[in-house]
Design a protein that fits this description.
This protein has 226 residues and is mainly α. The chain has nine helices and two strands; from the N terminus they run αααααββαααα. α6 (123-141) runs parallel beside α8. The longest helix is centred in the C-terminal third of the chain and has 33 residues, at 193-225.
Length: 226
């Protein structure tokens, strides 16, 4: 961070964050594709759950086996969504340790901030929470089906970031703001929910037209049989 600071620790944190996010882009793109594939399998997963609805151990073992087979056939890893978070945790810990121990970061100033202290006006925690909400909301928009846990997560994550940001060094809050803002832009580029919804609506429209055409083609045959 010190090498990237150009004499200002805040600029160093911003550039460090952007570099980390750029490095993680392939992993994030992989996560995005994996999540979309998982969502597309939801109807089949629900069918399996209905087929193996019994709670006895033998039936549940069959359900797990069939679920794993379905994931394997479609090249889906249900745990891939955790990878970016696991990768970023050591980075957050290292940044926290740096801000706590390195005088240049602890005593560094950026705009109105003393990077080793909390943001006195809570501007960065609020921005971090807003960008977190925007990121999670945009991601949820691309889901085929929304559920209660997803809706709770849309609000729980920003609230957690806000509460943590209020009580930690502003240097770490600055990292969250830049990182989550980058995530919003990345989502709009790589996983644009508006484009995905449009594509799904277009595919559904074509499917309805195909079904109507088939029914229309079959109707004269039924009349001739009568």
């Amino acid at each position: 961070i010190k090498m990237l600071s150009f004499g200002n620790a805040g600029i160093g944190i911003i550039l460090f964050t952007l570099i980390i996010r750029i490095i993680l882009m392939p992993l994030m793109h992989f996560q995005t594709k994996s999540m979309r594939k998982t969502q597309e399998l939801q109807p089949k997963l629900k069918a399996l759950q209905q087929q193996y609805a019994s709670k006895d151990s033998e039936t549940q073992n069959k359900l797990r086996a069939e679920t794993q087979r379905l994931y394997a056939e479609n090249n889906v890893n249900p745990y891939a969504g955790c990878l970016p978070l696991l990768v970023q945790m050591p980075i957050l810990m290292a940044l926290w340790q740096s801000i706590s121990r390195v005088p240049a970061l602890q005593e560094g100033k950026f705009l109105w901030l003393q990077l080793g202290d909390r943001d006195p006006y809570f501007i960065l925690p609020i921005l971090a929470a807003l960008f977190t909400f925007a990121s999670t909301y945009l991601s949820s928009m691309s889901q085929i089906e929304s559920n209660a846990s997803l809706k709770i997560m849309n609000f729980a994550m920003p609230l957690m970031i806000l509460l943590m940001g209020i009580n930690i060094a502003s240097g770490l809050s600055l990292y969250w703001v830049v990182s989550n803002a980058f995530q919003v832009v990345q989502t709009l580029i790589l996983n644009n929910p508006f484009k995905i919804r449009q594509e799904r609506e277009e595919a559904a429209r074509k499917e309805r037209e195909r079904e109507r055409a088939l029914k229309k083609a079959m109707s004269p045959k039924k009349k001739r049989k009568k």
